[in-house]
Amino acid sequence: MRQLIIRADDLGYSEAVNYGIEKTVKDGLVSSVGLMPNMPAAEHGLKLLEGTHIALGQHTNICLGKPCANPDLIPSLLDENGHFHSSKAFREAYKEGRDLIKLDEAVIEIEAQYRRFKELTGQDPDYFEAHAVISDHLVKALAIVANKYHLPFNDINPMVEEGTFRGKPIHTLPFGAFAKEYDPLSCLQDGILHHLSEEMPNVAIFHPGYLDDYILTHSSLTINRTKEVTMLTDIKTREWLNKEDIELINYKQANL
Question: Which of 25, 238, 37, 58 is nearest to 154 (CA)?
């Protein structure tokens, strides 16, 4: 039987996003959830998921909100107001061959978010990765912190279909949430029918959520989050996965 992890990123982004993720966990298919430790709504999101049996990951965030580390120690990551640079700023620099992130500063902030994660949850993350920034230095810094604390690093770029988890291969399905006329179910079905690996666990990454003022003013991914909530809680989606003989697992159950 082919294995699939259905993952929801961005717990803590906003309270509305938290409510959407809660819906997909309690009434739907999500069993792995990534927490943004630095965000003010992180604790709210965790309270909503109390008593659920999920794999909880650290969705390290360096492009939204304020840092967990002392701002004086990480100036390359911050704008003039002490907030993280936007993901757009990181992407544009990367396209120009520049990496805004200094490796040693990224390590400091990632470690601070790891400490905050443990403070909020009382546990180590079940998987360990990062949010929305393409940066060679960020990936290296994540690996450094993961090795230091023996954390289960999930090195996945959602733009390509390859990665590792705990140092072993793991496959990620194509990410289509920014596509015009996005249909989450069609995207999931296409990924499973044409891209699913038979040899290793697969990960489908989603960003379910509802909308509030914060998400509308701070994210380019808005209405499609609500579409994902609907798809991930629709009984027809589960029935189709059963028909295709897909075994749904979380990161803790991945046979690696």
Answer: 58
* Exposed/middle/buried for residue 243 (C-beta within 10 Å: 0-12, 13-18, 19+): exposed
Beta bridge partners of 6: 204
Give burial (CB, 10 Å; 0-12/13-18/19+) of 117.
buried
Which two three-digit tokens encode residue 167? 């140092």
Whole-structure pTM over 0.90, yes or no? yes
pLDDT, tens only, 87-110: 888 888 888 989 889 999 999 999
Residue 3 CA to residue 82 CA, distance in Å, equals 42
In the structure, how many helices (H) and strands (E) does the chain have? 9, 9
Buried b (16+ CB within 10 A) or exposed e, 9-35: bbbbbbbbbbbbbbbbbeebbbbbbbb
> Which SS3 state, helix, strand or coil, does residue 42 take?
helix
